[in-house]
Each structure stands twice: as structure tokens, then as C-alpha cells.
Amino acid sequence: NMYGITETAIHATHGRVVFASDGSFDATVGRPLPDLRILILDRFLEPVPVGVPGEIFVGGPALARGYLNNPDLTAERFIDDPHTPGQRLYRSGDLALFRPDGQIRYLGRKDRQLKVRGYRIEPAEIESALRAIDGVSDALVTTRPGPQGPNLTAYLVTAPDGQVRHRAVTEGLRGSLPGYMVPTHYFTVPALPTTVNGKADHDGLHTTATVLTADHTPSRLPTSTESSLLAIWSTLLDTPCTDPTANFFELGGDSITALR
Question: How far apart are CA 243 and CA 120, in angstroms?
Fold first, then answer.
């Protein structure tokens, strides 16, 4: 297993994943590659103790010089190393901790950025586009685990008199977002649940969620061959597939899933 970011020439750590006899494993991202340094720092840029979460900072000769034609973002993300004069660090925005054995456990993003099929995605951008669709009063975008990895999933709060349909939502998003930012699963909820401190309660989302209604009834029944194919799609895409005129990629398929 490896951890990497484009700004550090892709890979920064490497570790072997060891499986137990029952198939379980304790996944880490390993240790830094020989020519890189990994620091896990708190908000004061001080090292955190073993076992305590902090932000990953990467140093070493693999660091990029900065972002092309974007000096403000370069200054924000590439900083002087406060612990090694003359060296630089890249502020990743990723959270992790050091285990007692020196292995690094990756914990996720410091902000809400999602990573799906190699793309880093800002869910707020998708949520803004969803709220611009007629009948959608609020939205929250997150990921759900699927057979081929995480899938973008949207939870929609619809207006009381709104009739929102699946195809209308996806077509609305495709008019303003690149394809990889269009969710593959849609649910409606009465309201977005929150925790006691007012933040979105992701764990409570699915308890009141219902699948967003499809736009139309298939114009014909599938043939026996199409039925077999739709059953395969349902398994691979983790979503019911019954329409013989459906688009594999609009349902969440991709080139790797197509090969399977």
C-alpha cells in the first residue's frame, strides 16, 4: 500500500500489507520512501506524539517547485520547514498518525475533499450545482463503498411541492460539472441530519433515505440476454438495473468495471 500526492512526484510512502489467516488485515500506508521525509504536525506546526492524529507534511527532493502561475496557493501549501532550516515542506491537507512501530495510518482529509477513482473532488461544488436544480432545496454529497471502490452519492432535500427525478438531476449536473463529479447514487431525505454541534451527521444520513425516483418506466421488457447483462450490472454497480435502454456509464460504470 502506498500514499502519494502529485506535488511530491506521486508516491511518498510504501508498506507491505500482511493478511491474517482469516483474511483480515491492518492497513497502513507504510513508511516514507528513502528520499522523502514525512512529518505529522499539529496546527502549530509541532510534531504530534505517536498515536495522535495530525496533518501530513512531506519534505525532500521530490517536492514540486510550486503551482504554475498560482503564487498564492504555492505560498499556502509549500512552506519553509520550521524544524530543518533551508528545507521546504508540502502541506498535504491529509490526516494521519504514527503507530508505535513507525508505520503511518492514513485517516482521511482535513477538509471535506473526496478522492474517487483518482480524482480529488470538492463536494461543496457538487452540492451547489444540485441546489440550483428545480425542486432541490438542500443537498449533501459524500461517498458510499461499492464493489469497485467508493462511489459519489448525493442526498437531496426536495421542496414540499417538488417532483425531482433521477434523470433530471443527472442531466442538470452534466450541464455544469465534468463527468467524474456527477454522483452515481441519489437518495432523498426529509432533512439533512446534524450532530449535537450542528455539523452534518453522515452516519445518520441513510436511516431516513429513500432512492430517488427514476424518470420513466422502460418502454419494453429486456430480452433474455439483456436480463443476464442487467443482472451483472446490478452486481458490479451495486444498484438495481432493470431498464434495457439504460446507459452503463450513467449508472456509475467506468472502463475498469466494463472490463470486469
Answer: 31
